[in-house]
């Protein structure tokens, strides 16, 4: 009487397998959706704006903790809506 398991042959590692990276199944399951073109451009534009703001804050000597509050977010939103 045979066991209930599958009859699949076991996988043996060969010499080329040392060059292959281990696949993390948990992280690959999370990344099932492909990024579309709008998300890519939005991310690039967001990164550029954040860099400009960080450079300005650094150049004028404003403490970085000054921009970490709701008032700063509100004024940036208002500036963005104004254009």
Automatic annotation (TrEMBL):
Domain of life: Eukaryota
Name of the protein in question: Uncharacterized protein
Organism expressing this protein natively: Dipteronia sinensis
């Amino acid at each position: 009487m045979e066991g209930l398991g599958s009859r699949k042959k076991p996988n043996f590692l060969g010499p080329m397998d040392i060059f292959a990276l281990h696949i993390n199944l948990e992280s690959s399951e999370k990344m099932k959706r492909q990024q579309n073109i709008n998300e890519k451009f939005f991310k690039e534009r967001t990164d550029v704006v954040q860099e400009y703001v960080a450079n300005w804050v650094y150049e004028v000597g404003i403490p970085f903790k000054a921009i970490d509050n709701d008032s700063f977010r509100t004024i940036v939103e208002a500036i963005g809506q104004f254009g």
